[in-house]
Amino acid sequence: MKRTPLKKESKAANKLREKKLDRAYQDYFREVCEEGNIPCEVCGKPMNLVHHFIEKSQCVNLRYNPINFVPLCSSCHFKIHMVGDYTGIAKITLRRGKKWFDKLQEIKKLVGHKDKATYDRAEEQLIKLKSNDFYLMELVETYQKLKHF
Length: 149
Known about the structure:
Shape: globular
Number of domains: 1
Helix content: 55-70%
Number of strands: 2
Structural class: mainly alpha
Radius of gyration: 16 Å
Mean pLDDT: 86
Strand content: 5-15%
Distance between the termini: 42 Å
Strand order of the largest sheet: 1-2
């Protein structure tokens, strides 16, 4: 099927929106981890980014779901993605446990779509999180208790 100019424009707009949302979530959860003094889950050094355990490209439903977010330092993140050293992934899985891993797999099986509604929900969730410091502290407490968001 040939794409009309309107569909091309819509796809480009969604891609831009997705990029902005990814950055906003990254910034917010970096702030949460700094506020809660949450270190890199693999090595214990100060974290500086939030990794998606299940890759963003593999599951729309987990792209903006905090259960999928893992605080890492740049070095550990580099080892996972660029070097192919999956000992970090194993450490995360062992630390967080089978119940967490099974929940991720359950969510991953659900069908999701990259559409306006998905981005609308993600924006609404982020606005809600940012609107109240209570949510920030709740996320920190949840992480410290469960060892994941």
